[in-house]
Structures are given as structure tokens and as C-alpha cells.
Specification:
The complex is a heterodimer of chains A (163) and B (237). Chain A has 163 residues and is an all-alpha fold. Chain A has 2 domains: 2-81, RNA polymerase sigma factor, region 2, helix turn helix motif (Rna Polymerase Sigma Factor, Chain: A), CATH 1.10.1740; 98-161, Orthogonal Bundle (Arc Repressor Mutant, subunit A). Chain A is built from 9 helices and no strands. In chain A, helix 2 (9-28) runs antiparallel to helix 3 (33-49). Chain B has helices at residues 27-32, 42-64, 68-71, 77-99, 112-120, 122-133, 135-140, 142-146, 148-175, 181-201, 209-230, 232-235. The radius of gyration of chain B is 23 Å and the shape is elongated. The two termini of chain B are 26 Å apart. Classes of the chains: A mainly alpha (163), B mainly alpha (237).
Chain lengths: 163, 237
Amino acid sequence: MLAAQTGDRLAYARLLGECQKWLQRYFARRIPPSQIDDVVQETLMSVHRKRASYDGSRAFLPWLAAIGRYRWIDHLRKVYRAGETELNEEIHAAPQDDSAIAALSVDALLQQLPDGQAEVIRLVKISGYSIAEAAEQSGQSEALVKVNIHRGLRRMSAMIEEV
Amino acid sequence: MQQEGRIFKMRHDAAVPERSGAEPFSIEALVNGLSPVRPMRLRDGMMLSLAAVLVAAIAVALSMGVRQDLAAGNPHWMFVLRAAVLVVLGLAAAKAALSAATPGVGNSSPAAWKWLLAGAVLFPGGAAYVWLTEPVQTMARANLLLYPEYGLECLRISGVCAAVVAVVLTLWVRRGAPTSPNQAAWLIGLAAGALGAAAYSIHCTQNVLIYIGTWYSLAVAGCALAGRIILPRFLRW
């Protein structure tokens, strides 16, 4: 990367190739296989845009990992905000990564939320009820439903960050 | 997935929002687009921050004047203590904010600012102590002690000076890759507030603890909060 910062294209091409391989292994444990390519590409573009932020006096891999982790969290937020009507109960990953599946299971995450938040997230985001319908079923006001959804999703994002 | 160097196929996935207008990705394109960049160095960021504070302080001195004891070369001990705490706190927070621009898993961000903030709390803590132990007398003399018109000027001018520092810090951190924009925003606000208040303090003639503990604390806390509210959107990438 130090050479790349000076404009050495040959070194940069080799570096990006190695980064691509490392990122594919990194994301294979964290997101579904169908999404890995896109996130790897987004991360490599970030590596390119932010290459000036690499401090040559420190190791390269922690820097790459930090950027990869940021893009991973950003990807997860986009997925939640995409307004999917269905959230898969389990995120598919390599069969041997049972701990990753368990950790990332939406159901496992919801169980760690307060009951009020988990309930409205299940109703609105998973079962597809409207805010008004969820308010009626849960006994919460519509304003409280919105607040609980927002707080619950933020907490889930934070829990994912700790994985 | 194609081999490296060739064009990747963009896969459609309903779970992933598509990049509108995105051209096919290729490592070759990134390599061809490579240009030399100047690596970000912490000391460069610190120098820029100091320059911003100096500019703000000079502007205060030229437009509002310098307090007499400082101009005479014999500053009151309270001024020295106040300015030292603000400058050291501001620089420590600035260092932590600037460090956020060069991320690394496992790298711990500088934590000196937390200890210095704890020390700086002595000022509002002292003011609170005066209020609590002598409430009646303090209330009776509130106008005299707090000088509301000067206090509001303190907030206003400190805020303007802080904005100058905040712009410099934000532009620097934006160039980097802050992986926690919210935390970086807090630190920028805290640094800008402390350094902005330090710049204003060369004009401020008040030496009373309750005044300093109230108005300067409000200025620093207000800037930290403003930073947290306003800046994250500018720091995300």
C-alpha cells in the first residue's frame, strides 16, 4: 500500500488482488454467498477512495479489516432499510459456520431485545403488518410502535457489530 | 465469480439496494485510476488544528482586544489555569478525533481526553458547589456573578471560534475513513468547543469560578452536543 500511495500501479494491482481474496474469506463468514461479490466490490472501492488514510507505520491488515467491517455494517443497515417484507429467520452461510448462523439469526437477535421492541419488529418487519395494525395488536400507541422499531433495529445493529 | 482483473458480474439481489448508474466493477479500472496521494499524518492534522485556533485567537484579539493583565504580561492565575485546561483538553480531543480518520481493528484510540475531561469537570463542579453551599447568597448576586450579558457573549464568540476549528477538523477527518462517525463527531465537537473557548478566553476578563464553571462549561458542552447532532452525516462514507 505504501507503494500504491506513491502511484505504483503494479504493486497496487497485486495488492488489490490479495485484498479481494482476503475480503471474500472475511465476508463468507458474515453475509449470504449471493451478496459477497457486491460487498467485496464496495469495499475495494472504499480501499481505493480512502487509501490516503492508511498509516504506513502500522500494519496493513487491521486497516483493511476496519474498512471491511465498516462496509459490512453499512451493508446490513441497507438491507434492513430496504424495507423487505420478509426477513429470513436464518442467514445462509457456509455449513461449517454454525456459530455464525446462530449469532446472526434474526430470531436470536430479537430474543435479546425487550419484549415490546421484539414484538413490534416481528409484527411490522417480519409479518408485514402496518404500524396501526401493530399498535392495535400489541396495545402500544402508534408513536411507541415507531420508537420501539427504531430502537430495536438500532440495538440489533449494535449487536451485529459485536459479532 | 470471474477471476481477478476481469469484470465482475453484478448480481441482482433483492436484499441489496442497487447502485444506480453503476458501471461494471473491475480491479483494472481502479488500478488505471490510481494517482499518488499524500498519506494523512496525525501531526499534519494537529498543526492545522493549532493554526485554526491561532487564527480564531488573532481574530478575537484584533476585533475585541486582549484582557489587560495578559497584554501586560502578568496574567491572573485563573486565566492561566482556565486557558491551560481548555487548550490541553481541546488538543487531546482533537488528537483522538484525528486518529479516528486512520482506522485499524485492534488499534485503541487515544484516551487521554477522557482523563482531561474528568479534570476539566472541576470547573462546572466548582460552580455547582458554590450554588449548592450558598444558594441564597449566590442567587442574590447571580446577576453580578454570572454577568448574563457577558456570559451570552462568551457563548456566542466561543461558538464562532469553535466553528472555525470544527470546519478544519471535519474536513480532515472526512478525508480519512472514520469507522465510528458518531464518536468522531462527539470528539470534534468537544475539541472545537474547548479550543474555541480558549481562543475567546484571551479577551474574557472574568476570573470568578462560578462564571467560568457556568458559561465556559455551557460553551464546551454545547459545542460537543452540536457536533454530535450536525457532523455525523458529513463523516459517513
